C-alpha cells in the first residue's frame, strides 16, 4: 500500500500541489514569524549585552513600585555624589556615571529626524573610561562641551558629516551643536531605526535637565573580587531610591519590556498563521473528498483484489502524511523568505527593526513540521474514513458514488448545535465577569472555531437558495468588471503580441504608455457596447436565430449556475474557506469603524479648546517647556496641559494625570458629582476620579484616597469630583490631581497633550502664530480638533491595514481552494465537457460556464462571511463600551467586489484548461 500511495501522489502531481498550497502558506507564516521574532530578539539581546560589556554591576534609580510598560512613569535620577562614594570602595575597580534621555535630532529641513516609531536615544559619553563605552568612533572625534556625535545611519540618510551643525531637542528648545564625530553601536550590525546622539556628561545633564544627577553608574570589580562581593559591598552604602544589580540581571531588566513586546508580536503573527492553516485545512479536506469521490472505482477495485478497509484507510492517510510533510518542508523554507521580506517591508515603511542576521532555531523546524503534518492529517481523517466505505461492487458500476453515512441525516442538526455551542462559549467569555485572561481568550478562540466549523457544515443547506440569488448578481458583476478592467490588461498584451511594444519593437515604453492612454478609452467604449449587446442576447428566451444549432451564452451560464448547485456540500466546503477569511476581515473593519466613531465622539465631548499641541508622531509625550513657549503667544485665552504618569492606589498601579487651574476652559467632563470648576480647585490634596474607579473602590465625593508616587511619597487626597469618561476613551487617568501636586512628586514630568484657546478661535493667522511659537520645538505641532481626530484615526486605520494584509493570506489560501476545486471538477466532468463541446458549446462558452460557477461560489462565501463577521462584531460591541456597532457599508461593498474578483481570477486557469479539452479525447476519458 505504501507503493500504491506513492504512485497515487506521483500520478496526481497537479492536484497534490494545489491541495498542499494552503498548508505551505500557513506553515510559511508560522516559520517566518519565528524566524523574524527570533532574529529581532537575538539582535536586542546583543544590544543589551553590549551595553554592559566590561561591567560587573550597575546602579540605577528605583521606583516605589513596578511601572507598567504602557505607562508614562519615569524612574527618578539620583545624586551625582554617589559616584565618588562608590568609586572609593575597595571592591570597586572602576566606576562611571551616565545620564540618558530622548534627544531629537533636527534635519536640514528643520523637521525632527524620525525613522518610523523607533526611539531617539541620547546619552552621555565618558572618554576617560573607554572600557564602558559601547560606541565605536568611525570618523571624527569624541564630543566636548556643546558638541554631539551621531550615528552613521542618520548622517548618511539626512546628509550630515563631521563638522556640520545639527539641531538637538531634548527637555528644552532646540540647540545647535557641532557634529564632532560619527559612531556605530558596538558589534551589532543594525540597531533598527533608532537615532543615537552622544554628549559629554555636563552637556547631557544640561540637555536632559538633570544637573547634578545621574541615571546609572557602571561598575567593574577589582581583581580578586567576585561580582557578588561587589554587589554586597555597594549595597551597604546605597541611599534610598537607588538599587544595584549584576550586569546580567540589569541587561535582563532592560530587555523585559522588549521581551514582552516580542512575545505579544510573535503571538499576534502566529494567530494569523493559524488562521491560514485553519482555512487551508478546509481546502485539504474538500480536495481530498473530491479526489476520493473521483477514485471510487479505483478503491473498489482494490477492495475486489483483496485490500481491507484498514489498508485503504492507511493508503489515504499515508498520502496525506506525505503531502503534509512535503508541504511543511516547503513552508518552512518559504518562511525564511517571508521573514526577509517582512524586514524589508518594515524598513521601507520607516520601521527599521534591529537585525543581526536571520536566526533559524531548531524549535522553528520542529514546530513548523509538526503543525504542517498534524493539520494535514486531521483534515484528511474524514475523507480517508469515507474511502473505506467504498463497496467492491462499485468497481463494475459506471458513475458509482459513495453511499451516505447512516448519520448523514443528522448533519444539519449537528452543525447547528455546534454553531450554537460556539456562540454560547463566546457569550460566556464576553459577558461573564471575573474570568482569568487565559480562560477568556481560550473560550473566545474555541467558540469562534466551533462557530466557523458549524456554519461551514450547515451552509450546504443554504447553497441552493444563495446560488439562485447570486446567479443574476454574478452575471452582471462579471459584465461590469469586464467592461472596467479588461481593456486595461488587453491593450498592452495586444501591443506586445503584435510586436508594437517590447524588445525589438519600434515603440518605446513611453510611447506604448501614451498610445495606451489614447486607445484605452476608445477600446473601453467598444468592449462595453459589445458586452452589453452580448448580455442582452444572453437574456433572450430563445437562442439567436443567426446561430442555429449553437448554444448561446445564456445556457452556458445556466449550466455554470447548475454546477454550483449540483453538489451543495462541495460548494459549501469550497465557499467555507473564503467565508472564514471574509468573516474575519468584516469583523476587523466593523470593529475599526466602531472604534473610530466613539473616539471622534469622545474628542468632540472633551476637546473644548481651539488647538491641541502634540508630538510629531501623535503619541509621544512632550516636555513642559513646549507649553511654556505657546503660553507666551499673544492672544492666548486659556492653556492647560495634561501631565501623564503612574501611581499606586489600593495596591494596584494605575494611570494618573495632572491638570492646572485653566483646565475648565479647554476640556469638558461629564460629571457624576462635581463641576467644571472642580478641575481648577484641586489644590495640593484634591483629586478627581473616573466613575469606574470610584465604583470599584467605593469612593464618593469627600472620600479619602492615598496615592503613592514613583518617588515613594504618599499623597493624602480627598475626592472632589467623579466623572464619566466617554465610551471612546479619554487622556485622563483613573486619578487626576493638580499640576502642582503632580510635579512635586514625579520627576521629569511630561505632557500628554496641551490644549489651547485663542482669541478668534481657529483661524489661519492663529495657526501661523502657533506654528511660529513651536519653531524652536520641531518635534511638536499644533492641531485643530478636526485635524486631531484625523491624525489619531489614521493611526487606527494604519493598524487595520496591517490586519488586512495579514488576513489577505487566508483569502489567498481560499483562492487556491477555489482553483483546486474547479480543477478537480474539470477532471471529474471531462466526459461531460466533451459531450457539451460535441453538441456545439464553444470554448468561450466553456470558459464562461466555469467562471460563472466560480463567481457564484465566491459570492456564497462572501455573503455568509460578511453576515458572520457582522454578527461577531455585534457581540463584541455589546460587551465593550469603547466600541459601538457601526456597519462600514462602503468597505463591505468593496469586500463583495473583491470576492467577485477572487472568483474571476480563480477561474482563469481551470477555465482555460477546460476550454482546451479535445472533445473526442474527452468522450473517451475514464
Automatic annotation (TrEMBL):
<comment type="similarity">
    <text>Belongs to the ABC-4 integral membrane protein family.</text>
</comment>
<dbReference type="InterPro" id="IPR025857">
    <property type="entry name" value="MacB_PCD"/>
</dbReference>
<feature type="transmembrane region" description="Helical">
    <location>
        <begin position="268"/>
        <end position="292"/>
    </location>
</feature>
<keyword id="KW-0472">Membrane</keyword>
<dbReference type="Pfam" id="PF12704">
    <property type="entry name" value="MacB_PCD"/>
</dbReference>
<feature type="transmembrane region" description="Helical">
    <location>
        <begin position="890"/>
        <end position="909"/>
    </location>
</feature>
<keyword id="KW-1003">Cell membrane</keyword>
<feature type="transmembrane region" description="Helical">
    <location>
        <begin position="575"/>
        <end position="596"/>
    </location>
</feature>
<dbReference type="Pfam" id="PF02687">
    <property type="entry name" value="FtsX"/>
</dbReference>
<dbReference type="GO" id="GO:0005886">
    <property type="term" value="C:plasma membrane"/>
</dbReference>
<feature type="transmembrane region" description="Helical">
    <location>
        <begin position="312"/>
        <end position="338"/>
    </location>
</feature>
<keyword id="KW-1133">Transmembrane helix</keyword>
<keyword id="KW-0812">Transmembrane</keyword>
<dbReference type="InterPro" id="IPR050250">
    <property type="entry name" value="Macrolide_Exporter_MacB"/>
</dbReference>
<feature type="domain" description="ABC3 transporter permease C-terminal">
    <location>
        <begin position="805"/>
        <end position="919"/>
    </location>
</feature>
<dbReference type="InterPro" id="IPR003838">
    <property type="entry name" value="ABC3_permease_C"/>
</dbReference>
<feature type="domain" description="MacB-like periplasmic core">
    <location>
        <begin position="571"/>
        <end position="767"/>
    </location>
</feature>
<feature type="transmembrane region" description="Helical">
    <location>
        <begin position="358"/>
        <end position="379"/>
    </location>
</feature>
<feature type="transmembrane region" description="Helical">
    <location>
        <begin position="507"/>
        <end position="532"/>
    </location>
</feature>
<feature type="transmembrane region" description="Helical">
    <location>
        <begin position="802"/>
        <end position="827"/>
    </location>
</feature>
<dbReference type="GO" id="GO:0022857">
    <property type="term" value="F:transmembrane transporter activity"/>
</dbReference>
<feature type="transmembrane region" description="Helical">
    <location>
        <begin position="854"/>
        <end position="878"/>
    </location>
</feature>
<feature type="transmembrane region" description="Helical">
    <location>
        <begin position="438"/>
        <end position="461"/>
    </location>
</feature>
<feature type="transmembrane region" description="Helical">
    <location>
        <begin position="473"/>
        <end position="495"/>
    </location>
</feature>
<feature type="domain" description="MacB-like periplasmic core">
    <location>
        <begin position="16"/>
        <end position="236"/>
    </location>
</feature>
<protein>
    <submittedName>
        <fullName>ABC transporter permease</fullName>
    </submittedName>
</protein>
<feature type="transmembrane region" description="Helical">
    <location>
        <begin position="413"/>
        <end position="432"/>
    </location>
</feature>
<feature type="domain" description="ABC3 transporter permease C-terminal">
    <location>
        <begin position="271"/>
        <end position="392"/>
    </location>
</feature>
Amino acid at each position: 500500500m505504501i507503493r500504491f500511495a506513492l504512485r497515487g501522489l506521483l500520478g496526481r502531481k497537479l492536484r497534490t500541489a494545489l491541495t498542499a498550497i494552503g498548508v505551505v502558506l500557513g506553515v510559511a507564516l508560522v516559520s517566518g514569524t519565528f524566524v523574524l521574532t527570533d532574529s529581532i530578539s537575538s539582535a536586542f539581546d546583543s544590544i543589551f549585552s553590549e551595553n554592559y560589556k566590561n561591567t560587573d554591576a550597575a546602579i540605577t534609580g528605583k521606583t516605589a513600585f513596578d511601572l507598567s510598560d504602557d505607562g508614562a512613569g519615569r524612574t527618578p535620577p539620583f545624586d551625582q555624589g554617589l559616584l565618588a562614594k562608590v568609586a572609593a570602595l575597595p571592591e570597586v575597580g572602576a566606576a562611571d556615571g551616565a545620564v540618558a534621555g530622548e534627544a531629537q535630532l533636527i534635519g536640514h529641513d528643520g523637521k525632527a529626524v524620525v525613522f518610523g516609531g523607533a526611539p531617539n536615544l541620547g546619552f552621555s559619553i565618558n572618554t576617560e573610561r573607554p572600557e564602558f563605552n559601547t560606541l565605536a568612533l568611525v570618523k571624527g572625534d569624541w564630543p566636548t562641551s556643546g558638541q554631539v556625535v551621531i550615528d552613521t545611519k542618520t548622517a548618511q540618510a539626512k546628509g550630515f558629516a563631521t563638522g556640520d551643525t545639527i539641531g538637538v531637542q531634548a527637555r528644552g528648545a532646540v540647540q545647535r551643536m557641532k557634529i564632532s564625530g560619527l559612531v556605530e553601536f558596538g558589534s551589532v550590525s543594525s540597531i533598527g531605526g533608532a537615532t543615537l546622539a552622544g554628549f559629554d556628561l555636563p552637556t547631557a545633564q544640561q540637555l536632559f535637565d538633570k544637573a547634578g544627577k545621574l541615571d546609572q553608574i557602571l561598575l567593574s570589580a577589582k581583581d580578586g573580587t567576585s561580582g557578588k562581593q561587589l554587589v554586597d559591598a555597594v549595597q551597604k552604602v546605597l541611599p534610598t531610591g537607588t538599587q544595584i544589580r549584576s550586569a546580567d540581571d540589569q541587561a535582563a531588566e532592560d530587555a523585559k519590556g522588549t521581551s514582552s513586546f516580542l512575545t505579544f508580536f510573535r503571538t499576534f503573527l502566529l494567530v494569523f498563521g493559524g488562521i491560514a492553516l485553519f482555512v487551508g485545512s478546509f481546502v485539504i479536506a474538500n480536495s481530498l473528498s473530491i479526489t476520493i469521490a473521483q477514485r471510487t472505482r479505483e478503491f473498489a477495485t482494490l477492495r475486489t483484489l483483496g485490500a481491507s478497509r484498514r489498508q485503504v484507510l492507511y493508503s489515504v492517510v499515508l498520502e496525506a502524511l506525505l503531502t503534509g510533510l512535503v508541504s511543511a518542508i516547503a513552508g518552512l523554507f518559504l518562511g525564511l523568505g517571508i521573514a526577509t521580506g517582512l524586514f524589508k517591508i518594515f524598513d521601507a515603511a520607516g520601521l527599521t527593526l534591529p537585525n543581526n542576521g536571520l536566526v533559524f532555531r531548531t524549535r522553528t523546524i520542529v514546530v513548523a513540521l509538526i503543525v504542517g503534518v498534524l493539520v494535514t492529517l486531521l483534515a484528511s481523517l474524514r475523507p480517508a474514513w469515507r474511502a473505506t466505505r467504498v463497496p467492491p461492487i462499485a468497481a463494475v458500476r459506471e458513475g458509482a458514488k459513495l453511499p451516505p453515512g447512516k448519520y448523514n441525516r443528522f448533519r444539519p442538526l449537528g452543525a447547528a448545535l455546534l454553531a450554537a455551542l460556539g456562540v454560547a462559549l463566546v457569550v460566556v467569555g464576553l459577558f461573564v465577569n471575573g474570568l482569568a485572561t487565559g480562560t477568556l481568550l481560550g473560550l473566545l478562540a474555541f467558540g469562534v472555531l466551533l462557530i466557523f466549523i458549524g456554519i461551514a457544515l450547515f451552509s450546504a443547506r443554504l447553497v441552493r437558495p444563495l446560488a439562485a440569488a447570486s446567479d443574476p448578481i454574478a452575471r452582471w458583476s462579471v459584465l461590469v468588471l469586464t467592461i472596467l478592467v479588461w481593456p486595461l490588461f488587453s491593450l498592452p498584451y495586444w501591443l506586445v503580441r503584435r510586436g508594437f511594444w517590447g524588445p525589438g519593437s519600434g515603440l518605446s515604453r513611453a510611447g506604448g504608455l501614451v498610445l495606451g492612454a489614447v486607445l484605452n478609452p476608445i477600446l473601453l467604449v467598444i468592449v462595453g457596447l459589445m458586452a452589453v449587446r452580448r448580455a442582452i442576447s444572453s437574456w433572450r428566451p430563445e437562442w439567436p436565430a443567426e446561430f442555429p444549432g449553437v448554444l448561446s451564452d445564456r445556457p452556458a451560464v445556466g449550466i455554470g449556475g447548475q454546477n454550483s448547485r449540483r453538489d451543495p456540500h462541495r460548494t459549501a466546503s469550497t465557499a467555507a474557506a473564503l467565508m472564514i477569511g471574509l468573516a474575519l476581515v468584516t469583523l476587523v473593519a466593523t470593529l475599526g469603524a466602531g472604534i473610530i466613531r466613539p473616539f471622534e465622539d469622545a474628542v468632540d465631548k472633551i476637546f473644548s479648546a481651539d488647538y491641541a499641541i502634540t508630538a510629531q508622531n501623535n503619541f509621544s509625550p512632550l516636555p513642559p517647556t513646549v507649553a511654556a513657549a505657546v503660553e507666551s503667544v499673544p492672544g492666548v485665552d486659556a492653556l492647560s496641559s495634561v501631565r501623564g504618569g503612574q501611581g499606586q492606589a489600593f495596591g494596584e498601579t494605575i494611570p494618573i494625570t495632572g491638570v492646572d487651574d485653566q483646565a475648565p476652559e479647554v476640556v469638558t467632563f461629564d460629571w457624576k458629582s462635581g463641576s467644571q470648576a472642580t478641575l481648577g480647585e484641586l489644590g495640593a490634596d484634591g483629586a478627581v476620579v473616573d466613575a469606574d474607579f470610584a465604583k470599584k473602590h467605593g469612593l464618593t465625593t469627600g472620600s479619602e484616597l492615598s496615592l503613592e508616587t514613583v518617588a515613594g511619597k504618599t499623597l493624602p487626597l480627598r475626592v472632589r469630583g467623579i466623572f464619566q469618561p466617554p465610551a471612546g476613551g479619554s487622556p485622563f487617568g483613573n486619578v487626576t490631581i493638580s499640576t502642582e501636586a503632580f510635579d512635586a512628586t514625579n520627576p521629569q514630568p511630561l505632557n500628554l497633550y496641551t490644549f489651547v484657546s485663542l482669541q478668534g478661535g481657529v483661524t489661519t493667522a492663529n495657526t501661523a502664530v502657533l506654528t511660529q511659537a513651536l519653531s524652536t520645538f520641531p518635534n511638536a505641532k499644533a492641531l485643530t480638533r478636526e485635524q486631531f481626530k484625523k491624525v489619531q484615526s489614521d493611526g487606527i486605520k494604519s493598524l487595520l491595514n496591517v490586519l488586512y494584509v495579514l488576513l489577505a493570506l487566508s483569502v489567498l489560501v481560499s483562492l487556491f481552494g477555489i482553483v483546486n476545486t474547479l480543477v478537480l471538477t474539470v477532471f471529474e466532468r471531462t466526459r461531460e465537457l466533451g459531450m457539451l463541446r460535441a453538441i456545439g458549446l464553444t470554448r468561450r462558452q466553456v470558459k464562461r460556464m466555469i467562471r460563472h460557477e466560480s463567481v457564484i461560489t465566491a459570492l456564497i462565501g462572501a455573503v455568509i462571511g460578511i453576515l458572520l463577521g457582522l454578527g461577531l462584531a455585534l457581540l463584541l460591541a455589546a460587551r465593550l463600551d469603547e466600541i459601538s456597532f457601526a456597519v462600514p457599508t462602503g468597505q463591505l461593498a468593496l469586500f463583495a467586489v473583491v470576492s467577485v474578483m477572487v472568483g474571476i481570477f480563480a477561474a482563469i486557469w481551470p477555465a482555460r484548461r477546460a476550454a482546451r479539452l479535445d472533445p473526442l479525447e474527452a468522450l473517451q476519458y475514464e
